[in-house]
Amino acid sequence: MSLNSFGHLFRVATWGESHGPALGATVDGCPPGVAVDEAMIQHWLDRRKPGQNRYTTQRQEADQVEILSGVFEGKTTGTPVQLMIRNTDQRSKDYSEIAEKFRPGHADITYWQKYGIRDYRGGGRSSARETAARVAAGGLARAALAALAPEVRITGYMVQMGPHRIDRDRFDMGEVERNSFWVPDAKAAEDWAGYLDGLRKSGNSVGAVIEVVASGVPAGLGAPIYGKLDTDLAAAMMSINAVKGVEIGEGMAAAELTGEANADEIFPGNDGKPVYSSNHAGGILGGISTGQDVVVRFAVKPTSSILKPRQTITKAGQATEIITKGRHDPCVGIRAVPVGEAMMACVILDHLLLHRGQIGDAGGRIG
Ligand SMILES: Cc1cc2nc3c(=O)[nH]c(=O)nc-3n(C[C@H](O)[C@H](O)[C@H](O)COP(=O)(O)O)c2cc1C
């Protein structure tokens, strides 16, 4: 199974399976001298870890990160950083009943068709356990950003669960850390709790939309045509399990706008920094950051493992029925929030390093 890496200069390869002894990320290209330790990376992993409330899978994983290489006396050395997380709560027996059946909505059938291998223990490499490795790599990327571009802030939150959207008039970032859904709207958090409880108790699940914003990103990151910042962001988000749609700025809704409404007008600002009237572009023009907030949204599909009987086939091609027991997230969107943030951190850092390499301080000045 090839192609387990992403990134150009800050290059992340993830490895490991849901029910193997451990999983992790090997990060090649992290600059030297970045202050980082296990606690700093653990902070981000704790936000993704399962079993934290009744709306996430009850699999109990400490998700404790170990740094095996690339850090000496609290600083990166510039050599590969190996991040490892041991699996501690693998219960293969939960999956033994489905070893011969393909679970609808999962990668079982396509992995079988492609590789002729069926890792029925929670999906093996296709399991969202893999996203823990991304969050660990994202923690390292955040540490590097803190050193190289300390003004960059990356925040993710849910803006939609099933048909229920947040009310942007009630938007309050302070709420995000106070509820189980990472939602910036106290009323939505209350309403969604009842909605998701109902779905969970009936053995069903639902999809969600997550928004990730990077503020403080300097103008000039990204390159035209094949190196567009938005191309890499879209690929990074789309590579997360269960993601079925990605949009930047106005996204799909841009199709409904007129050119007049969509134009982010430009005004003179202080210190040669332009001021924009709006941010329909999501902080990216021609693949290059404008200096405004970089805004990405992605949609995740409803959790496929549900207690409702579904039709499927066996490896032998026989029709059968399946109920996917075991421990599952009723809405994967909740735990996808820290994963989206991690991918944003990796991509922004990667483009910062590319920019530093090719351009340095040689950009055009306004004023
Ligand atoms: C954080 C996170 C947690 C997930 N948890 C579950 C889960 O508990 N049960 C499930 O059926 N799918 C879960 N998924 C989704 C599956 O991993 C994913 O749908 C599956 O691997 C098939 O890949 P695809 O949906 O990208 O095609 C989760 C996804 C993410 C991002």
UniProtKB/TrEMBL annotation:
Origin organism is: Primorskyibacter flagellatus
What sort of enzyme, by top EC class, is this? lyase
Upper classification of the source organism reads: Bacteria, Pseudomonadati, Pseudomonadota, Alphaproteobacteria, Rhodobacterales
EC annotation from Swiss-Prot or TrEMBL:
4.2.3.5
Any one Pfam family match given in the protein's UniProt record, by short name: Chorismate_synt
User: Keywords on this record?
Assistant: Amino-acid biosynthesis, Aromatic amino acid biosynthesis, FAD, Flavoprotein, FMN, Lyase, NADP
Q: Which Gene3D superfamilies match?
A: Chorismate synthase AroC
Assembly, in brief, is: Homotetramer.
Q: What does this protein do?
A: This reaction introduces a second double bond into the aromatic ring system.
| Family, similarity comment | Belongs to the chorismate synthase family.
Q: Which note does the record give on the cofactor?
A: Reduced FMN (FMNH(2)).
SUPFAM superfamilies from the UniProt entry: Chorismate synthase, AroC
User: Hey, which pathway is this one from?
Assistant: Metabolic intermediate biosynthesis; chorismate biosynthesis; chorismate from D-erythrose 4-phosphate and phosphoenolpyruvate: step 7/7
GO biological process terms, alphabetically, are: amino acid biosynthetic process; aromatic amino acid family biosynthetic process; chorismate biosynthetic process
Annotated catalysed reactions: 5-O-(1-carboxyvinyl)-3-phosphoshikimate = chorismate + phosphate
**Protein name, as recorded:** Chorismate synthase
HAMAP family to which the protein is assigned, alphabetical: Chorismate_synth
Q: Which InterPro entries match?
A: Chorismate_synth, Chorismate_synth_AroC_sf, Chorismate_synthase_CS
Residues that, per the record, bind NADP(+) = 48, 54
- What CDD domains does the database record attribute to this sequence? Chorismate_synthase
* GO annotation, cellular component aspect: cytosol
User: A single Gene Ontology molecular function, please?
Assistant: FMN binding
UniProt binding sites for FMN: 125-127, 241-242, 286, 301-305, 327
Required cofactors, per record? FMNH2
